[in-house]
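Long-time lurker. I teach an intro course on protein structure, and each term I like to show students one example going from raw sequence to a predicted 3D structure in token notation. This year I'd like something fresh instead of my usual example. Would anyone be willing to generate the tokens for the chain below so I can use it in lecture? Attribution to the forum is fine with me.
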Amino acid sequence: MSNERTRYDLTSADTKIIGFDYQYFYFINELLKLSYGETVGFEVKDDVHIDLPNNNLVLIQNKHTIQKNSKDKPINLTEMDDDLWKSLSNWTKVIKEGRTTSAQIEFIKKVDFIFVTNKLLDKNKPISNIKLFINKKITFTKLIAYLKELHSLTLDKDVKEHLNDVISLDTKVLSAYIKKIKFINSSDDIVDEIKQNIQGKMITLSRVNDVFNDLFSELKQDFFSEVKKGKHQIISYNEWLTKYIRIFENYRQTNLPIRYFKPIFPDDLSEQPFIKELIEIGEVEKDDFVQIVQFSEYMLTVQLNLNKWYEDGEITNIDKENFKKSAISIWRNIHRKSHRTTKSNMSLNNVNSINCLDDIRDKNLKMITTEIGVDLSNGEFYLLSNEGAIGWKLEWEAKY
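-- Reply from a regular --
Happy to contribute to a lecture. Here you go:
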């Protein structure tokens, strides 16, 4: 029974399917990171390739395994791993491709060769030696001697042939080529990484799975359509924006426009209540005009945005009130925590007040679903302080 199970495992198509799917997920993840002028292709120039706007090229070989070690981690990439040497061999063929030696070197200058695998790389001696050479820790002669030794030791005909392709390159070409190879340990959690990148496109967490499913479906349908036509799936930045942006917009909740005004400042900035308290606790000096202007600008800008959103019908009075209550609740908790030691030691009042202020400044408030950013969030707390709704000292209410 065990022999039969092993035979089924060896002949199963599952491992091939998951390897192909992993490559496609990697392709999708690169699409989510696409920048202006770039183009990403799947199974065209390599497993995945990226054409850069400066005419440079990134070639990516993606190798995945479902085999686990005793610690339930992916197995190590071994010294004679066929995935490694086949990838390096394939790139040597790309480099040659009818080019003269000098043309090969010029080609290499414009290409990055990236080997991506979920197999563990830490104990792989070939990769370690390549990195030592790149970092000038060993000579090129020593590296070549090591590769030739591997070639003589291996009994695997395929690996021997792949190694031969590598070491038979012209020495100058091989040296330049090796310096352009990068090795990346990929995670088995590629789907989670994709979802994190989707969320980074201003998609709320509750909608991430919806976007992922729609995006995967749309891309797969396009892939099938292109293959039927005898074409490849190659997506430019402009096509990515025009063809697939709708998927994101369908699930992206409308964000409020944050505007940056040129506010009209009061005549005596240092007489503002919130500035008076900041001066008293030692956060700002009375003659520090630049800092006082900045704090005042944050406060006035958030006030102008709130008024504009309300005037334009984008928020209601209830929204404004809930926003204010939320900010006060955040302040109340931090103020209480900051001043636990103040009552028994009033000499700590100013220190604890500044600690309270520092913690508040890290908060990023939301108006409905729109994060307004740290600067405007600070401005809202300054506004509440100026209105006498919150303060920093223990006895702020009696004083301000």
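Some talking points for your students: The longest strand covers residues 57-63. Residues 131 and 137 are 8 Å apart (CA to CA).
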